[in-house]
Amino acid sequence: METNQKNQTINSIYGDYQKHLCEILETLTNRLSKANETFRLKNGEALYEHINGRIKSEQSMRDKCRRRGLPCTPYSALHELTDAIGLRIVTTFREDINQVIETIEHFEDCRIIEKKDYIHNVKPNGYRSYHLILDYETPFEDVCGHTPGHYFVEIQLRTIAMDTWASLEHQVSYKKNIDPKREKLIRQELKRCADELASCDISMQTIRNLIREDHAHENTAR
Amino acid sequence: MKILLAEDETAMQRAIQAFLSIQHCEVDLASDGRKAVEMAENGVYDCYVFDIMMPGMNGIDALQHLRGSGDKTPAIFLTAKVEVDDRVHGLEAGADDYLTKPFAMKELLARIHSVTRRSEEYTPSKLTFGNVDFDADNDTLTCKSSIQLSSPEGRMMRYLLLNPQKSISSETLYHHVWNEKENPDADEQMVWIYISYLNQKLDAIDADIKISGEESGPFSLVSNQSNGL
Protein backbone atom coordinates (compact mmCIF):
# COMPACT_ATOMS: atom_id res chain seq x y z
CA MET A 1 0.00 0.00 0.00
CA GLU A 2 2.70 2.46 1.03
CA THR A 3 4.80 1.61 -1.98
CA ASN A 4 1.81 2.08 -4.19
CA GLN A 5 1.17 5.55 -2.82
CA LYS A 6 4.82 6.44 -3.19
CA ASN A 7 4.80 5.25 -6.79
CA GLN A 8 1.79 7.38 -7.54
CA THR A 9 3.55 10.48 -6.33
CA ILE A 10 6.69 9.74 -8.24
CA ASN A 11 5.03 8.31 -11.32
CA SER A 12 2.44 10.93 -12.05
CA ILE A 13 -0.29 9.96 -14.49
CA TYR A 14 0.86 13.03 -16.40
CA GLY A 15 4.40 11.59 -16.66
CA ASP A 16 7.17 14.00 -17.58
CA TYR A 17 4.62 16.41 -18.99
CA GLN A 18 3.34 17.25 -15.51
CA LYS A 19 5.84 20.10 -15.12
CA HIS A 20 4.47 21.85 -18.21
CA LEU A 21 0.85 21.77 -17.12
CA CYS A 22 1.20 24.35 -14.34
CA GLU A 23 3.18 26.60 -16.61
CA ILE A 24 0.52 26.43 -19.33
CA LEU A 25 -2.18 27.18 -16.78
CA GLU A 26 -0.23 30.14 -15.48
CA THR A 27 0.53 31.53 -18.94
CA LEU A 28 -3.12 31.40 -19.99
CA THR A 29 -4.38 32.83 -16.70
CA ASN A 30 -1.93 35.71 -16.95
CA ARG A 31 -2.86 36.37 -20.54
CA LEU A 32 -6.55 36.49 -19.70
CA SER A 33 -5.91 38.76 -16.69
CA LYS A 34 -4.00 41.09 -18.96
CA ALA A 35 -6.85 41.05 -21.50
CA ASN A 36 -9.24 41.84 -18.66
CA GLU A 37 -7.14 44.82 -17.61
CA THR A 38 -6.84 46.15 -21.17
CA PHE A 39 -10.59 45.77 -21.66
CA ARG A 40 -11.31 47.58 -18.39
CA LEU A 41 -9.07 50.51 -19.28
CA LYS A 42 -10.69 50.79 -22.70
CA ASN A 43 -14.34 50.25 -21.74
CA GLY A 44 -14.51 51.22 -18.09
CA GLU A 45 -15.92 47.79 -17.25
CA ALA A 46 -14.15 44.49 -16.75
CA LEU A 47 -14.33 41.69 -19.28
CA TYR A 48 -14.96 39.17 -16.54
CA GLU A 49 -15.38 39.09 -12.80
CA HIS A 50 -12.82 36.46 -11.84
CA ILE A 51 -10.88 33.50 -13.13
CA ASN A 52 -9.90 30.19 -11.48
CA GLY A 53 -7.68 27.45 -12.76
CA ARG A 54 -6.72 23.97 -11.70
CA ILE A 55 -4.80 20.93 -12.85
CA LYS A 56 -7.02 17.90 -12.44
CA SER A 57 -5.80 15.96 -9.40
CA GLU A 58 -3.99 12.64 -9.89
CA GLN A 59 -6.81 10.80 -8.18
CA SER A 60 -9.64 12.37 -10.22
CA MET A 61 -7.76 11.79 -13.44
CA ARG A 62 -7.11 8.13 -12.61
CA ASP A 63 -10.75 7.67 -11.61
CA LYS A 64 -11.88 9.24 -14.85
CA CYS A 65 -9.59 7.02 -16.94
CA ARG A 66 -10.99 3.94 -15.20
CA ARG A 67 -14.56 5.08 -15.72
CA ARG A 68 -13.84 5.54 -19.40
CA GLY A 69 -12.05 2.18 -19.63
CA LEU A 70 -8.75 3.85 -20.49
CA PRO A 71 -5.32 2.77 -19.20
CA CYS A 72 -3.89 5.19 -16.61
CA THR A 73 -1.22 6.62 -18.88
CA PRO A 74 -0.08 10.15 -19.81
CA TYR A 75 -1.50 9.48 -23.29
CA SER A 76 -4.99 8.83 -21.88
CA ALA A 77 -4.77 11.81 -19.50
CA LEU A 78 -3.45 14.31 -22.00
CA HIS A 79 -4.64 13.09 -25.37
CA GLU A 80 -7.77 10.97 -24.91
CA LEU A 81 -9.20 13.20 -22.19
CA THR A 82 -9.25 16.96 -22.53
CA ASP A 83 -9.72 18.36 -19.04
CA ALA A 84 -6.29 17.94 -17.38
CA ILE A 85 -5.95 21.72 -17.54
CA GLY A 86 -9.13 23.56 -16.58
CA LEU A 87 -10.04 27.24 -16.36
CA ARG A 88 -13.25 28.78 -15.11
CA ILE A 89 -14.08 32.35 -16.07
CA VAL A 90 -16.94 33.97 -14.20
CA THR A 91 -18.58 37.06 -15.70
CA THR A 92 -20.97 39.64 -14.29
CA PHE A 93 -23.41 39.65 -17.21
CA ARG A 94 -24.58 37.09 -19.74
CA GLU A 95 -23.32 38.88 -22.84
CA ASP A 96 -19.85 39.22 -21.30
CA ILE A 97 -19.45 35.50 -21.98
CA ASN A 98 -19.52 36.13 -25.75
CA GLN A 99 -17.01 38.92 -25.27
CA VAL A 100 -14.62 36.54 -23.50
CA ILE A 101 -15.03 33.90 -26.21
CA GLU A 102 -14.25 36.52 -28.83
CA THR A 103 -11.11 37.50 -26.92
CA ILE A 104 -9.97 33.86 -26.77
CA GLU A 105 -10.68 33.43 -30.49
CA HIS A 106 -8.08 36.12 -31.12
CA PHE A 107 -5.31 34.24 -29.27
CA GLU A 108 -3.07 33.14 -32.10
CA ASP A 109 -1.73 29.99 -30.46
CA CYS A 110 -5.20 28.79 -29.36
CA ARG A 111 -7.73 27.04 -31.50
CA ILE A 112 -11.23 26.41 -30.14
CA ILE A 113 -11.95 22.82 -31.15
CA GLU A 114 -15.24 22.38 -29.36
CA LYS A 115 -18.00 24.64 -28.03
CA LYS A 116 -20.71 23.29 -25.77
CA ASP A 117 -23.43 25.83 -25.14
CA TYR A 118 -25.31 24.72 -22.05
CA ILE A 119 -26.76 28.22 -21.73
CA HIS A 120 -29.06 27.62 -24.68
CA ASN A 121 -29.06 23.85 -24.35
CA VAL A 122 -29.77 23.85 -20.63
CA LYS A 123 -29.13 20.53 -18.90
CA PRO A 124 -32.28 18.91 -17.48
CA ASN A 125 -31.23 19.71 -13.91
CA GLY A 126 -31.00 23.44 -14.79
CA TYR A 127 -27.20 23.63 -15.26
CA ARG A 128 -26.18 26.55 -17.42
CA SER A 129 -22.62 27.22 -18.55
CA TYR A 130 -20.59 27.60 -21.75
CA HIS A 131 -17.77 25.09 -22.25
CA LEU A 132 -14.83 25.45 -24.61
CA ILE A 133 -12.07 23.00 -25.43
CA LEU A 134 -8.90 24.67 -26.65
CA ASP A 135 -6.03 23.20 -28.56
CA TYR A 136 -3.13 25.25 -27.21
CA GLU A 137 0.19 25.27 -29.01
CA THR A 138 3.19 25.44 -26.67
CA PRO A 139 6.98 25.43 -27.08
CA PHE A 140 7.07 22.19 -25.04
CA GLU A 141 6.98 18.66 -26.31
CA ASP A 142 3.57 16.99 -26.07
CA VAL A 143 2.50 13.45 -25.26
CA CYS A 144 2.57 12.51 -28.96
CA GLY A 145 6.22 13.57 -29.18
CA HIS A 146 5.57 16.73 -31.22
CA THR A 147 7.41 19.99 -30.62
CA PRO A 148 5.88 22.55 -30.59
CA GLY A 149 3.42 20.49 -28.61
CA HIS A 150 -0.35 20.68 -28.38
CA TYR A 151 -2.18 20.61 -25.06
CA PHE A 152 -5.91 20.59 -24.40
CA VAL A 153 -7.40 23.20 -22.10
CA GLU A 154 -11.01 23.16 -20.97
CA ILE A 155 -12.65 26.46 -20.21
CA GLN A 156 -15.96 26.93 -18.41
CA LEU A 157 -17.65 30.29 -18.83
CA ARG A 158 -20.60 31.38 -16.73
CA THR A 159 -22.16 34.34 -14.93
CA ILE A 160 -21.89 34.86 -11.18
CA ALA A 161 -25.47 33.62 -10.79
CA MET A 162 -24.77 30.45 -12.82
CA ASP A 163 -21.58 29.89 -10.82
CA THR A 164 -23.32 30.24 -7.46
CA TRP A 165 -25.99 27.80 -8.63
CA ALA A 166 -23.38 25.29 -9.85
CA SER A 167 -21.58 25.30 -6.52
CA LEU A 168 -24.85 24.63 -4.71
CA GLU A 169 -25.74 21.83 -7.11
CA HIS A 170 -22.27 20.37 -6.59
CA GLN A 171 -22.97 20.17 -2.84
CA VAL A 172 -26.14 18.17 -3.44
CA SER A 173 -24.43 15.82 -5.88
CA TYR A 174 -21.59 15.01 -3.51
CA LYS A 175 -23.65 14.71 -0.37
CA LYS A 176 -24.17 11.07 0.45
CA ASN A 177 -27.08 9.40 2.19
CA ILE A 178 -29.71 12.07 1.60
CA ASP A 179 -33.27 10.80 2.04
CA PRO A 180 -34.42 10.13 -1.58
CA LYS A 181 -37.70 11.95 -1.06
CA ARG A 182 -35.87 14.97 0.28
CA GLU A 183 -33.31 14.84 -2.52
CA LYS A 184 -36.07 14.87 -5.11
CA LEU A 185 -37.57 17.94 -3.49
CA ILE A 186 -34.21 19.69 -3.30
CA ARG A 187 -33.48 18.91 -6.96
CA GLN A 188 -36.88 20.25 -7.97
CA GLU A 189 -36.24 23.47 -6.04
CA LEU A 190 -32.74 23.76 -7.51
CA LYS A 191 -34.21 23.53 -11.01
CA ARG A 192 -36.75 26.25 -10.23
CA CYS A 193 -33.98 28.37 -8.75
CA ALA A 194 -31.86 27.92 -11.89
CA ASP A 195 -34.76 29.14 -14.05
CA GLU A 196 -35.31 32.13 -11.76
CA LEU A 197 -31.63 33.05 -11.78
CA ALA A 198 -31.54 32.79 -15.58
CA SER A 199 -34.54 35.11 -15.67
CA CYS A 200 -32.76 37.63 -13.42
CA ASP A 201 -29.56 37.37 -15.47
CA ILE A 202 -31.53 38.26 -18.60
CA SER A 203 -33.42 41.10 -16.88
CA MET A 204 -30.13 42.59 -15.65
CA GLN A 205 -28.59 42.28 -19.11
CA THR A 206 -31.70 43.97 -20.59
CA ILE A 207 -31.50 46.84 -18.09
CA ARG A 208 -27.80 47.23 -18.85
CA ASN A 209 -28.59 47.41 -22.58
CA LEU A 210 -31.33 50.00 -21.95
CA ILE A 211 -28.89 52.13 -19.93
CA ARG A 212 -26.34 51.85 -22.74
CA GLU A 213 -28.93 52.82 -25.36
CA ASP A 214 -29.89 55.90 -23.32
CA HIS A 215 -26.24 56.76 -23.01
CA ALA A 216 -25.73 56.37 -26.77
CA HIS A 217 -28.77 58.61 -27.44
CA GLU A 218 -27.39 61.27 -25.11
CA ASN A 219 -24.04 61.18 -26.86
CA THR A 220 -25.57 61.51 -30.33
CA ALA A 221 -27.81 64.32 -29.11
CA ARG A 222 -24.82 66.35 -28.00
CA MET B 1 -62.56 48.44 -20.61
CA LYS B 2 -63.08 47.89 -24.32
CA ILE B 3 -66.24 46.28 -25.66
CA LEU B 4 -67.21 45.06 -29.09
CA LEU B 5 -70.93 45.54 -29.69
CA ALA B 6 -72.56 43.74 -32.61
CA GLU B 7 -76.06 45.11 -33.10
CA ASP B 8 -78.00 46.01 -36.26
CA GLU B 9 -80.64 48.30 -34.75
CA THR B 10 -79.38 51.87 -34.74
CA ALA B 11 -81.48 52.99 -31.76
CA MET B 12 -80.21 50.11 -29.63
CA GLN B 13 -76.60 50.75 -30.74
CA ARG B 14 -76.79 54.37 -29.68
CA ALA B 15 -78.46 53.65 -26.36
CA ILE B 16 -75.90 51.03 -25.34
CA GLN B 17 -72.95 53.04 -26.56
CA ALA B 18 -74.11 56.17 -24.77
CA PHE B 19 -74.68 54.37 -21.50
CA LEU B 20 -71.43 52.40 -21.53
CA SER B 21 -69.35 55.46 -22.46
CA ILE B 22 -70.53 57.19 -19.31
CA GLN B 23 -69.35 54.11 -17.41
CA HIS B 24 -65.85 54.54 -18.91
CA CYS B 25 -66.22 51.70 -21.38
CA GLU B 26 -64.92 52.17 -24.88
CA VAL B 27 -67.40 50.68 -27.37
CA ASP B 28 -66.63 49.60 -30.94
CA LEU B 29 -69.63 48.99 -33.19
CA ALA B 30 -70.25 46.23 -35.70
CA SER B 31 -73.51 46.20 -37.63
CA ASP B 32 -73.56 42.48 -38.40
CA GLY B 33 -71.89 39.17 -37.52
CA ARG B 34 -69.36 39.20 -40.33
CA LYS B 35 -68.14 42.68 -39.40
CA ALA B 36 -67.96 41.61 -35.73
CA VAL B 37 -65.72 38.63 -36.61
CA GLU B 38 -63.45 40.86 -38.65
CA MET B 39 -63.13 43.43 -35.87
CA ALA B 40 -62.62 40.78 -33.19
CA GLU B 41 -59.87 39.17 -35.20
CA ASN B 42 -57.98 42.43 -35.52
CA GLY B 43 -58.69 44.16 -32.24
CA VAL B 44 -58.33 43.43 -28.56
CA TYR B 45 -61.51 43.45 -26.45
CA ASP B 46 -62.40 42.71 -22.85
CA CYS B 47 -65.94 41.61 -23.69
CA TYR B 48 -68.18 40.90 -26.68
CA VAL B 49 -71.84 41.90 -26.61
CA PHE B 50 -73.54 40.30 -29.62
CA ASP B 51 -77.15 40.51 -30.72
CA ILE B 52 -78.36 37.10 -31.90
CA MET B 53 -80.66 38.23 -34.72
CA MET B 54 -78.66 40.12 -37.31
CA PRO B 55 -78.75 40.14 -41.10
CA GLY B 56 -76.11 38.03 -42.86
CA MET B 57 -74.10 36.18 -40.23
CA ASN B 58 -75.98 36.03 -36.94
CA GLY B 59 -74.44 36.48 -33.50
CA ILE B 60 -74.30 32.76 -32.71
CA ASP B 61 -72.39 31.91 -35.90
CA ALA B 62 -70.03 34.84 -35.33
CA LEU B 63 -69.15 33.70 -31.82
CA GLN B 64 -68.85 30.08 -32.88
CA HIS B 65 -66.36 31.16 -35.53
CA LEU B 66 -64.30 33.16 -33.02
CA ARG B 67 -64.32 30.40 -30.39
CA GLY B 68 -63.24 27.97 -33.09
CA SER B 69 -60.11 30.02 -33.73
CA GLY B 70 -59.23 29.98 -30.04
CA ASP B 71 -60.65 33.33 -28.97
CA LYS B 72 -61.51 33.17 -25.25
CA THR B 73 -62.86 36.71 -24.78
CA PRO B 74 -65.97 36.71 -22.53
CA ALA B 75 -69.21 37.12 -24.50
CA ILE B 76 -72.80 38.11 -23.73
CA PHE B 77 -75.71 37.54 -26.12
CA LEU B 78 -78.64 39.90 -26.50
CA THR B 79 -81.81 38.17 -27.58
CA ALA B 80 -85.21 39.52 -28.45
CA LYS B 81 -86.70 36.08 -28.41
CA VAL B 82 -88.11 34.42 -25.39
CA GLU B 83 -87.52 30.92 -26.77
CA VAL B 84 -85.42 28.68 -24.61
CA ASP B 85 -83.70 27.15 -27.70
CA ASP B 86 -82.19 30.45 -28.68
CA ARG B 87 -80.59 30.95 -25.30
CA VAL B 88 -79.38 27.36 -25.23
CA HIS B 89 -77.78 27.66 -28.66
CA GLY B 90 -76.12 30.89 -27.65
CA LEU B 91 -74.62 29.43 -24.49
CA GLU B 92 -73.50 26.31 -26.32
CA ALA B 93 -71.83 28.39 -29.00
CA GLY B 94 -69.55 29.65 -26.23
CA ALA B 95 -71.35 32.63 -24.72
CA ASP B 96 -70.81 33.28 -21.02
CA ASP B 97 -74.17 34.92 -20.38
CA TYR B 98 -77.26 36.32 -22.13
CA LEU B 99 -79.79 39.10 -21.69
CA THR B 100 -83.35 39.16 -23.02
CA LYS B 101 -84.61 42.38 -24.58
CA PRO B 102 -85.84 44.62 -23.18
CA PHE B 103 -83.28 44.91 -20.41
CA ALA B 104 -82.08 47.55 -18.01
CA MET B 105 -78.77 49.14 -18.98
CA LYS B 106 -77.36 48.78 -15.52
CA GLU B 107 -78.03 45.07 -15.69
CA LEU B 108 -75.99 44.86 -18.91
CA LEU B 109 -73.13 46.65 -17.18
CA ALA B 110 -73.36 44.35 -14.15
CA ARG B 111 -73.25 41.29 -16.43
CA ILE B 112 -70.26 42.68 -18.35
CA HIS B 113 -68.46 43.15 -15.04
CA SER B 114 -69.47 39.68 -13.93
CA VAL B 115 -68.19 37.84 -17.04
CA THR B 116 -64.95 39.81 -17.29
CA ARG B 117 -64.21 39.22 -13.61
CA ARG B 118 -64.79 35.50 -14.08
CA SER B 119 -62.57 35.37 -17.13
CA GLU B 120 -59.70 36.92 -15.15
CA GLU B 121 -60.06 34.11 -12.65
CA TYR B 122 -60.66 31.28 -15.05
CA THR B 123 -58.33 31.82 -17.95
CA PRO B 124 -56.73 28.51 -18.79
CA SER B 125 -53.55 27.88 -16.87
CA LYS B 126 -51.75 26.42 -19.89
CA LEU B 127 -51.37 28.67 -22.92
CA THR B 128 -49.50 27.86 -26.11
CA PHE B 129 -48.34 29.82 -29.14
CA GLY B 130 -45.65 28.77 -31.62
CA ASN B 131 -43.29 26.38 -29.88
CA VAL B 132 -43.78 28.08 -26.51
CA ASP B 133 -45.81 26.78 -23.57
CA PHE B 134 -46.77 29.07 -20.75
CA ASP B 135 -47.87 27.80 -17.36
CA ALA B 136 -49.90 30.73 -16.02
CA ASP B 137 -50.24 29.24 -12.54
CA ASN B 138 -46.49 29.25 -12.01
CA ASP B 139 -45.43 31.94 -14.52
CA THR B 140 -43.11 29.46 -16.24
CA LEU B 141 -42.25 29.86 -19.91
CA THR B 142 -41.05 26.69 -21.61
CA CYS B 143 -39.62 25.86 -25.00
CA LYS B 144 -36.20 24.23 -25.41
CA SER B 145 -35.52 25.07 -21.77
CA SER B 146 -37.69 26.80 -19.22
CA ILE B 147 -37.49 30.16 -17.52
CA GLN B 148 -39.28 31.55 -14.50
CA LEU B 149 -41.00 34.91 -15.04
CA SER B 150 -41.71 37.61 -12.45
CA SER B 151 -45.39 38.25 -11.80
CA PRO B 152 -45.82 41.38 -14.00
CA GLU B 153 -43.96 39.55 -16.77
CA GLY B 154 -46.33 36.62 -16.29
CA ARG B 155 -49.43 38.85 -16.51
CA MET B 156 -48.10 40.48 -19.68
CA MET B 157 -47.23 37.13 -21.26
CA ARG B 158 -50.68 35.76 -20.42
CA TYR B 159 -52.42 38.76 -21.98
CA LEU B 160 -50.29 38.53 -25.13
CA LEU B 161 -50.92 34.79 -25.42
CA LEU B 162 -54.67 35.34 -25.07
CA ASN B 163 -54.48 37.85 -27.92
CA PRO B 164 -51.82 36.52 -30.28
CA GLN B 165 -51.09 38.30 -33.56
CA LYS B 166 -53.28 41.24 -32.60
CA SER B 167 -52.02 44.78 -32.44
CA ILE B 168 -52.12 45.91 -28.80
CA SER B 169 -51.44 49.49 -27.75
CA SER B 170 -48.95 50.28 -25.02
CA GLU B 171 -51.79 51.79 -22.99
CA THR B 172 -53.99 48.68 -23.19
CA LEU B 173 -51.10 46.47 -22.19
CA TYR B 174 -50.24 48.79 -19.33
CA HIS B 175 -53.77 48.71 -17.92
CA HIS B 176 -53.93 44.93 -18.12
CA VAL B 177 -50.64 44.36 -16.37
CA TRP B 178 -50.40 47.07 -13.73
CA ASN B 179 -52.92 48.15 -11.20
CA GLU B 180 -52.69 51.90 -10.84
CA LYS B 181 -53.83 51.80 -7.24
CA GLU B 182 -51.05 49.40 -6.29
CA ASN B 183 -48.36 50.98 -8.44
CA PRO B 184 -49.03 54.71 -8.56
CA ASP B 185 -45.48 55.33 -9.79
CA ALA B 186 -45.62 52.93 -12.71
CA ASP B 187 -46.17 54.45 -16.13
CA GLU B 188 -46.26 53.34 -19.75
CA GLN B 189 -42.47 53.38 -19.93
CA MET B 190 -42.62 50.19 -17.86
CA VAL B 191 -44.34 48.49 -20.77
CA TRP B 192 -41.29 48.80 -22.99
CA ILE B 193 -38.93 47.53 -20.28
CA TYR B 194 -41.12 44.47 -19.74
CA ILE B 195 -41.49 43.89 -23.49
CA SER B 196 -37.68 43.93 -23.66
CA TYR B 197 -37.40 41.43 -20.77
CA LEU B 198 -39.88 39.08 -22.39
CA ASN B 199 -38.23 39.27 -25.80
CA GLN B 200 -34.82 38.45 -24.32
CA LYS B 201 -36.33 35.58 -22.34
CA LEU B 202 -38.18 34.18 -25.36
CA ASP B 203 -34.89 34.32 -27.23
CA ALA B 204 -33.05 32.57 -24.39
CA ILE B 205 -35.34 29.54 -24.57
CA ASP B 206 -35.10 29.43 -28.40
CA ALA B 207 -38.73 30.42 -28.91
CA ASP B 208 -40.00 30.84 -32.48
CA ILE B 209 -42.21 33.75 -31.40
CA LYS B 210 -41.47 37.32 -30.34
CA ILE B 211 -43.19 40.57 -29.46
CA SER B 212 -42.88 42.99 -32.33
CA GLY B 213 -43.23 46.75 -32.07
CA GLU B 214 -41.29 49.96 -31.45
CA GLU B 215 -40.80 51.46 -28.01
CA SER B 216 -44.05 53.47 -28.14
CA GLY B 217 -46.10 50.51 -29.36
CA PRO B 218 -48.37 49.04 -30.60
CA PHE B 219 -47.12 45.54 -29.87
CA SER B 220 -48.02 42.20 -31.27
CA LEU B 221 -47.09 38.63 -30.37
CA VAL B 222 -45.96 37.13 -33.66
CA SER B 223 -44.13 34.19 -35.09
CA ASN B 224 -40.45 34.78 -35.90
CA GLN B 225 -40.76 33.10 -39.28
CA SER B 226 -43.51 35.41 -40.49
CA ASN B 227 -40.93 38.21 -40.71
CA GLY B 228 -38.45 36.03 -42.53
CA LEU B 229 -36.11 35.96 -39.55
What is the CATH level 1 assignment of chain A? Alpha Beta
The fold-level CATH name of chain A is: Beta Polymerase, domain 2
Overall mean pLDDT of chain B stands at 89
- Gyration radius of chain B (Cα, Å) is 19 Å
Level-1 CATH class name of the largest domain in chain B:
Alpha Beta
Protein structure class of chain A? alpha+beta
Q: Spatial order of the strands in the main sheet of chain B?
A: 2-1-3-4-5
The name of the CATH superfamily of the largest domain in chain B reads Response regulator
Number of helices of chain B: 8
In helices, the fraction of residues of chain B equals 40-55%
* Class derived from helix and strand content of chain B: alpha/beta
Identify the CATH architecture of chain A. 2-Layer Sandwich
Write up what this structure looks like.
The complex is a heterodimer of chains A (222) and B (229). With 222 residues, chain A is of the alpha+beta class. Chain A has one domain (2-160): 2-Layer Sandwich (Beta Polymerase, domain 2). Chain A is built from 7 helices and 5 strands. Chain A has helices spanning 2-10, 18-43, 58-67, 74-80, 94-105, 160-174, 180-221, and strands at 50-55, 85-91, 110-117, 130-138, 149-159. A 5-stranded mixed β-sheet of chain A has the order 1-2-5-4-3. In chain A, helix 6 (160-174) runs antiparallel to helix 7. Chain A is flat. Chain B is an alpha/beta fold. Chain B has 2 domains: 2-121, Response regulator (Rossmann fold); 126-227, Arc Repressor Mutant, subunit A (Orthogonal Bundle). In chain B, 42% of the residues lie in helices and 20% in strands. Chain B has 8 helices and 11 strands. In chain B, the strands form 3 sheets. A 5-stranded parallel β-sheet of chain B has the order 2-1-3-4-5, with helices on both faces. Chain B has a 4-stranded antiparallel β-sheet with strand order 6-7-8-9, covered by helices on one side. In chain B, helix 2 (33-42) packs parallel to helix 3 (59-68) and helix 6 packs across helix 8. Chain B is globular. The two termini of chain B are 35 Å apart. Classes of the chains: A alpha+beta (222), B alpha/beta (229).
